[in-house]
Design a protein that fits this description.
heterodimer; A: 157 residues; alpha+beta; 2 domains; 6 strands; B: 276 residues; Phosphoenolpyruvate Carboxykinase, domain 3; 26% helix
Chain lengths: 157, 276
């Protein structure tokens, strides 16, 4: 129950600030996340000692704007979905984005939290691949992802 | 590897590129000069004997006979990575693998899969996967007076500056995937020499009939796009993030869908000028 009430950010992640946003790299899953300013501010406050309502109050103070707790709950939901929080033992009652937007209203004082994620590429994916009929040793080398082993050539792509 | 070592090797060389040492050996005299133009730009001969990756090119010799195909073989260390009757295709695999290995293994630089040109003292970058139209866009930018940096990799140092990786442009001139190589000079452009700060990154994809209406992208979202195209992010995540942070300090990011490259290229250069 503690994790549910006092969310805690996972430790084995690297993070760097890019303006008001934060890029987080999950070393365990090799996934990169971009947290917008609201999601980043919420994530930084997830130290295992702050409850969602405390995070809401601190955020309001930091941003000098009234922050609805629904915003924080939505941010926590997104962060949990991105595996950036220590996994709760009891499933958290999440707030869907649609419900949150309805509750918060369109005139929110701060940006709605947003977490964008990508799977880090394998080296072969982040370089030009081999095209149709070029010799290959394994499927990862081919743009099509298909290396025909008998002939040792890429099929398609 | 021992079996390979026992073959008669006619010639070979050890090269150093971006702090990575690799070796190439061939079993037939006269083939090595065909390998040299395929080596990474800026490579230097090394006198060290120990290399991190050794390519062994076994060129098929003798006449073709009925029922017997003479195949050229290429090994990276002890793994066979190509087996083909056409030597040029095997050499293309050698080039791709060596460039990719260098990009992955170097810790001196961070390699991003992107086309790069220089324009008025800063770099314009086009990150994207294969077949996303990087080379086409780079070629158009060169036509408009930009300086050539790379059509394959943006090479970023620890200060966040972009270095040239000016290998010949691989241009696909028909619907086949075969590329014809042209140097920047053959296309009437010049190749960049000194490292540049990045001014703009353009995330775009080709779509027939699309209208080029680029939209701005935040610095974080842009950096995430660059992360998607980082070759060694899995093995060097901390270094990659640190260098990306420095790289994008003064960068504006735009994204959109383009049709013909020449329309987008002119617009990108105008936007870049307006940004300055």
């Amino acid at each position: 129950m503690k994790e549910r009430q006092f969310p805690r950010a996972r430790l084995n992640c690297l993070s760097r600030e890019f303006g008001k946003e934060v890029l987080v790299y999950d070393l365990q899953r090799d996934v990169g996340h971009c947290l917008n300013s609201t999601a980043a501010a919420t994530w930084k406050l997830c130290d295992g000692n702050n409850s969602p309502s405390q995070i809401t109050r601190t955020l309001s103070r930091q941003l000098s704007a009234r922050v609805d707790e629904s915003v924080v709950r939505l941010a926590l939901d997104l962060l949990a979905n991105a595996n950036l929080l220590v996994e709760p033992k009891v499933p958290v009652e999440y707030l869907s984005r649609r419900v949150a937007v309805r509750r918060i209203g369109i005139a929110a004082a701060i940006a709605l939290p947003l977490v964008t994620s990508i799977v880090a590429p394998m080296p072969a994916q982040a370089a030009s691949c081999l095209h149709n009929n070029q010799p290959c040793a394994n499927s990862a080398m081919c743009c099509s992802g298909v290396c025909v082993p008998i002939v040792g050539r890429c099929l398609g792509g | 590897m021992k079996k390979l070592d026992r073959l008669d090797w006619a010639e070979g060389l050890t090269l150093s590129t971006f702090g990575v040492r690799a070796g190439v050996r061939v079993n037939v005299l006269g083939v090595l000069p065909r390998v040299l133009p395929l080596l990474p730009p800026g490579w230097k001969k090394s006198h060290r004997v120990i290399v991190e990756r050794l390519y062994s090119l076994v060129v098929a010799q003798g006449c073709e006979r009925a029922g017997v195909r003479r195949l050229h073989l290429l090994y990276a260390d002890s793994t066979r990575i190509a087996r083909d009757a056409a030597l040029n295709r095997v050499l293309a695999t050698l080039e791709t693998d060596l460039h990719r290995y260098t990009a992955e293994a170097t810790s001196d630089m961070t390699f991003l899969h992107a086309g790069v040109v220089g324009w008025q003292g800063s770099a314009i970058m086009f990150p994207g996967p294969s077949l996303s139209g990087k080379t086409t866009l780079v070629r158009e930018m060169l036509r408009l007076g930009a300086t050539y940096y790379s059509d394959e990799f943006a090479v970023v140092d620890s200060s966040g500056l972009v270095h040239p990786f000016a290998r010949p442009l691989g241009i696909r001139e028909d619907s086949s995937y075969a590329q014809t190589k042209y140097s920047a000079e053959e296309l009437g452009a010049t190749s960049g020499v000194k490292p540049l700060p990045m001014g703009m990154a353009v995330i775009c994809k080709y779509e027939a009939g699309a209208r080029w209406q680029p939209a701005p992208l935040s610095q974080g979202q842009g950096a995430l796009e660059l992360l998607t195209n980082s070759v060694a992010v899995r093995s060097q995540p901390d270094q990659t993030l640190r260098r990306l942070q420095k790289l994008v300090r003064h960068t504006i990011f735009i994204q959109g869908t383009r049709d013909e490259a020449h329309k987008a290229a002119a617009s990108i250069l105008n936007l870049s000028c307006a940004h300055k």
